[in-house]
Amino acid sequence: MRRLLVATLLLALAVAAPAAASEERPTLADLEDEIVCPVCTPETLEQSNSAVADRMRAFIRQRIAAGDTKSEIKEKLVAQFGEQVLAAPPKSGFNVLAWALPLTGGLLAGVGVGLLALRWSRAREPEAPLEASSNGGPPLDPELEQRVDEELARFDA
Amino acid sequence: MAARAKILLQAAAVAVVALLIALLGWQIAKTEEGRGLSAAVAAGEAPPAPGFTLDSLEGEEDVSLADFRGRPVVLNFWASWCGPCKDEAPMLQSAWERYGDRGLVVLGIDAQDLKVDGRRFAERYALTYPLAYDGNGSTLGRYGLTGFPETWFVSRRGRLVGEYIKGPLDEETLERNIQVLLGAA
Asked: What is the ipTM of this complex?
C-alpha cells in the first residue's frame, strides 16, 4: 500500500514539474499546439503554414522573450482573436459544458449499457440442461446409441 | 416510479437533441445570412448592410456602421498579412482623399489580425480613413466573406449596392462602384 502511494506521488510529481516549467518558461512548441490558426481552423499553429500563423508565431516568440508566462500569452491572443483561438476551450463559465457534456454522456452511456446488459442476462431463460452421456460428452442420437449398444453386445458375445 | 423516471429520462434526451439541432440551425442561419446578401446584390437587390460595432484599430473608441448613416461607405475588409491588401490600400486612401468632400467614407475593417500588425500596416500606408478592428472575425460570416481583401458598398440609407468585390480592387472597379454609391439614395 505504501509503495503504491509513493509511486502515485512520484508520478504526480513527474507530470506536475514539467507542466509548471512550461507555464513559467514556455517555448514556442508548448504553445503552438494549443493555439488555432484563425483562418484555417481547426489547424493549430503547429500544423499551419499560413501567413497569419507565421505572424502569430512571431508574436509568441516576442512575448516569450519579454518574459510572459504561457497563460499571459494565451490571454493576449484571446484578447485579440477571441476564445476560438484556443485549441481546447477554457474550463470555466459556459465552456465547462464542452468538457462536462462528453464526459457525462460517456458515463451515462456506460451506465446504460451496464444496466441493459444486466437486465438481458437476467431475463434470459435458463436453457434445459443437456442430458450428458455416460462418458460426459454430448448425448448421442438414440438410434445411434442403440446401434452402438448392439455392436458392443455382438462384440462381447 | 421506474416508469416515471424512464419518461423523464426520455424527455431529457429529446430536449438535449432538440437543443443541439436548434444550435446547428442557428449556426447555419448565421452562415447563410452572408451568402444571402451576396446573392441578393448579384440579383440587383439592395439588402440592408448588417450592423456592427467594433473597436477602433487606433484608438479606444468604438466604430459603428450606424455612425456613418447618411454617408456612402466603401466597406473594405483587410488584414496586414494579406498580400493583395497592400496593393489596395493606397487606392482606397486616394479615393478617401478625392471623394471625402462629397461625403464618401472609406471604412476599413482589419480582421483576424494582430492589432499591432494592423496598426503598423496603417502607419506604413499612411491610411487616414476610419479603421475598425475585428480580431475574432465576428463580421466576416455576416457579410459572407470568403477571404481577404473583399469590399462592399453601403449606400446612405445603409443598403448594399453596386458590386460585391471578392478579391483585390482595381482602379476601374473602385471608381465604377463609387459612382454607383454617390448616385444611390
From this structure: 0.78
